[in-house]
């Protein structure tokens, strides 16, 4: 099974601290390396975590608060200095293209690769990226400006060929594709060999959801139902519930309640406020509801 991993580059909130970097993470699915958010210091985290700059193919920006996109112009510049040639796709609110144009014209004029901006509408649920293996969809969040979460899903996989059965029934090589898709095999004598005798079940498709920054959004539970891993912001403790609502953020307890209702398999909390010197209290609150919750930390890798 190909790797499906989430590598945390930063899980802090708006104010920088010595404990946490601003929001950013890299999602690896097979040979695909996708970045979600790009806060200040992201490229340094890529270096520290030994992630090749050339591997990042796409960047998905949830919203245009600085702690989620201030690192983008520096990273783009570094990519050029390193001689990148592959295009870089950036999925974000249409305003980002306008905001970055003068910066790109001044700091990155004549860069060695193509920047391709894809405008997204954070107010609707839609598929914004698709290839032969995965889809990436947006889910609307409730924040102080347009903001969306992302769900990355593997497409249904094909069945596994049983090599010894292929040899036993002398199945021609050119029929393997059809067998992987569920077709039966008909011998030259007209005998039907059922597909389940020649193949094994396909690996289950996996999914990952990212939700930050936002008030709790119960209306999105229908999209989050059963995802393998949910990263959800938990900016505040329950004692700061009023402050969380005022600033359009979520408490650790609220994140856990949402994860439980959506029946997700694993919850990781992040986007911690700088007011807390120990994030373990937030994890403790989340685990009172969702017992297996985990806490994001820089350098942590979560495997699906």
CATH class of the largest domain: Alpha Beta
Say what the CATH topology of the largest domain is: Metallo-beta-lactamase, Chain A
Task: State the distance separating the first and last CA atoms.
Answer: 10 Å
- Tell me the strand order in the biggest sheet: 6-5-4-3-2-1-18
Number of continuous helical runs: 10
The Rg value, from CA coordinates, equals 22 Å
Contiguous uncertain segments of 5+ residues? none
Q: What integer is the average pLDDT?
A: 96
Shape: globular
CATH architecture of the largest domain: 4-Layer Sandwich
**CATH fourth-tier homologous superfamily of the largest domain:** Ribonuclease Z/Hydroxyacylglutathione hydrolase-like
What pattern of helices and strands is seen along the backbone? EEEHEHEHEEEEEHHEEHEEHEHHEHEE
Largest sheet: number of strands, sense, barrel closure: 7 strands, mixed
Percentage beta strand: 25-35%
Structural class: alpha/beta
**Number of strand elements:** 18
Number of domains: 2
| Fraction in helix | 10-25%
């Amino acid at each position: 099974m190909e790797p499906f991993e989430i590598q945390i580059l930063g899980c802090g909130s708006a104010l920088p601290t010595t404990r946490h970097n601003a929001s950013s993470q890299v999602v690896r699915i097979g040979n695909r390396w996708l970045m979600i958010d790009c806060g200040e210091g992201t490229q340094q985290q890529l270096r520290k975590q030994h992630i090749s700059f050339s591997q990042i193919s796409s960047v998905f920006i949830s919203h245009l608060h600085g702690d989620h996109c201030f690192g983008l112009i520096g990273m783009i510049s570094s990519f050029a200095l390193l001689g990148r040639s592959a295009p870089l796709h950036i999925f974000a609110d249409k305003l980002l293209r306008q905001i970055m144009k003068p910066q790109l014209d001044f700091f990155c004029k004549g860069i060695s690769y193509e920047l391709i901006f894809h405008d997204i509408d954070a107010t609707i649920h839609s598929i914004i990226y698709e290839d032969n293996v995965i889809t990436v969809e947006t889910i609307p969040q409730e924040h102080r400006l347009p903001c969306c979460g992302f769900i990355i899903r593997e497409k249904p996989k094909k069945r596994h060929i049983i090599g010894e059965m292929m040899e036993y029934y002398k199945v021609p090589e050119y029929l393997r594709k059809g067998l992987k898709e569920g077709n039966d095999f008909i011998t030259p004598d007209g005998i039907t060999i059922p597909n389940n005798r020649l193949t094994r079940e396909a690996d289950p498709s996996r999914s990952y959801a990212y939700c930050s920054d936002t008030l709790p959004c119960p209306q999105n539970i229908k999209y989050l139902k059963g995802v393998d891993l949910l990263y959800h912001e938990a900016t505040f403790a329950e004692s700061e519930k009023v402050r969380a609502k005022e600033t359009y953020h979520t408490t650790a307890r609220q994140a856990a309640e949402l994860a439980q209702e959506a029946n997700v398999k694993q919850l990781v909390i992040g986007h911690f406020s700088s007011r807390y010197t120990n994030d373990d209290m937030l994890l403790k609150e989340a685990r009172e509801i969702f017992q297996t919750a985990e806490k994001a930390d820089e350098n942590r890798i979560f495997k699906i």
